[in-house]
């Protein structure tokens, strides 16, 4: 069904700029996502966006490089009107949004930040905006949609932890029968007799807690009698993959489908293995240049046990891997670093 332009509103949340110690690699992921997202919205004739909180990751201080990046990133959104609320990561205090980092956006004419409970009428629909820390009694009444950064009981914080505190679903649904919220990164939908609650989740995977959770964004149709919405998948950002050492073929299959540079890999050492063979496997995976690579252990490491495990990544030249890795680094005196590193490798291999 075609939606008239003025009735279409995009919704996303929990961008967490500065994630992973203000990593430039994650800045790059975010920028590429934003290029894709803004292009998607333009192709769908959507010019208005609602953001559900947590623009920044660190609440106590924001890195200068991340501030600079945020300014560059938001330039991509200059053609859109953006309505925002602070999330808990944007707020200085743990229980309210009276002081928040989104205040630095006040000079952007296309961005409105609601840091107190407010109501905005869009396409004849009353939309309530509830920043982090809004109490139940302060949630606006008689709204067609409530947007918040809520902590609701019995919803999932992530793939393994359930929220045991906070508001009850019944309390918030007494205020409005359609709730869109940020805060929890797992995308969740629950329908009740008197309404619906949607946690939109983060727009792309950010850590291994996001495995198996399809990321994306929503577009809301405010033109119909009851607000309608659609979810659109993000299949362009890196995904996280956790694979047992005993099942490396699975990793090869995933990498073939998604590309090594688009997967963050964690290998679970689920059986004993000789150190030299493990080193070869680790080196061979690093050589493929995944987005990131870490290992974790289920068992004690044993050098002496005899096992039957082949190197599924084929023959490789560890020394050449070392050289190529150093060549890729932004360091001075690469030739000297290579010489000394190879010398150490020859000495202990």
Give a structural overview:
- By secondary structure, this protein is an alpha/beta fold.
- It has two domains: 5-233, Metallo-dependent phosphatases (Purple Acid Phosphatase, chain A, domain 2, 4-Layer Sandwich); 239-316.
- Helix content is 26%, strand content 22%.
- It has a six-stranded mixed beta sheet, with no helix packed on it.
Number of domains: 2
The CATH architecture of the largest domain can be given as 4-Layer Sandwich
Number of helices: 8
- The gyration radius over C-alpha positions equals 24 Å
Major beta-sheet overview: 6 strands, mixed
Give the N-terminus to C-terminus distance in angstroms. Answer: 65 Å
The helical percent reads 25-40%
Task: Briefly say what this structure is.
The protein is α/β, with parallel strands linked by helices. It is about 25% helix and about 20% strand. Strand 5 and strand 6 (about 125-130) form a beta hairpin.
Characteristics of this structure?
22% strand, 15 strands, alpha/beta, 8 helices, Purple Acid Phosphatase, chain A, domain 2, six-stranded mixed beta sheet
Question: How do the strands and helices of this protein lay out in sequence?
Answer:
Elements: E1 8-12, H1 19-22, H2 24-43, E2 48-51, H3 64-75, E3 81-84, E4 111-113, E5 118-122, E6 125-130, E7 145-148, H4 169-173, E8 178-181, E9 188-192, E10 195-199, E11 216-221, E12 228-233, E13 239-244, H5 248-258, E14 263-269, H6 275-287, E15 292-297, H7 318-328, H8 334-348
Parallel strand pairs: 1-2, 2-3, 3-4, 6-7, 7-8, 8-10, 13-14, 14-15
Antiparallel strand pairs: 1-11, 5-6, 9-10, 11-12
